């Protein structure tokens, strides 16, 4: 269980940088840097990437065969981060944009059998302890591509943040692995990328 909490702490710790005034948007939850341009070419050895038409998503296939996911070509794609299997970051909305919306995927090898309900409880309980003013917006269990899944949306504040964030997470437990797909945005502000983020979520398949 410790590893799960550590993973969540990593996810939320990086968000503290968003609470500080910034000259440039932050797009890296691990290093808090903004050095990758929007057209960064991802490391995609043997992944059979294919590009679709305008407005559609480019497909990324995990080289280990665990999943596929789509992403827009104008978003920054990174599969070299130490903190996440995949990170997908929105483009800047202008010079006044102090952060970029971020979507990332984490995968955990489960050492013992866990149900999706058990895994979700550990994760959500950890989030409640980490976030101030935690409030659940929506949640549901459902079947997704032959696996039991759970999706939750919640909001709150982490650390010394000056504003609340809204987090959407998809949990899937399958083949002794737990998958957590997360999208983070600023709560209460119109999210111009929410529709695109939903398309990315829907494209994710095991």
Automatic annotation (TrEMBL):
Q: Where is this region: Disordered?
A: 26-63
Ordered alphabetically, the record's keywords are: Signal
The secretion signal range is: 1-19
UniProt xrefs under Pfam families: PsbP (PF01789)
What are the residue boundaries of the PsbP C-terminal domain, all occurrences included?
56-205
Presence of keyword Signal: yes
Q: Which organism is it from?
A: Lacibacter luteus
Record's protein name: PsbP C-terminal domain-containing protein
Record carries keyword GTP-binding: no
Source domain of life is: Bacteria
Q: Where is the composition biased (Low complexity)?
A: 30-52
């Amino acid at each position: 269980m410790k590893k799960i909490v550590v993973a969540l702490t990593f996810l939320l710790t990086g968000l503290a940088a968003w609470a500080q005034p910034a000259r440039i948007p932050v797009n890296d939850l691990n290093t808090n840097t903004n050095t990758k341009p929007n057209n960064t070419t991802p490391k995609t050895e043997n992944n059979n990437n294919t590009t679709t038409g305008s407005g559609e998503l480019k497909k990324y296939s995990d080289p280990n065969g665990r999943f596929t996911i789509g992403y827009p070509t104008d978003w920054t794609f990174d599969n070299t981060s130490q903190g996440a299997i995949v990170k997908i970051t929105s483009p800047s909305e202008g010079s006044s944009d102090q952060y970029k919306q971020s979507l990332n995927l984490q995968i955990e090898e489960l050492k013992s059998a866990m149900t999706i309900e058990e895994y979700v409880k550990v994760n959500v309980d950890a989030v409640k302890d980490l976030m101030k003013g935690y409030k659940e917006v929506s949640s549901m269990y459902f079947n997704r591509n032959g696996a039991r899944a759970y999706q939750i949306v919640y909001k709150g504040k982490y650390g010394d943040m000056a504003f609340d964030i809204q987090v959407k997470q998809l949990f899937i437990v399958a083949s002794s692995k737990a998958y957590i797909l997360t999208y983070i945005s600023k709560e209460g502000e119109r999210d111009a990328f929410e529709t695109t983020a939903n398309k990315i979520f829907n494209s994710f398949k095991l």
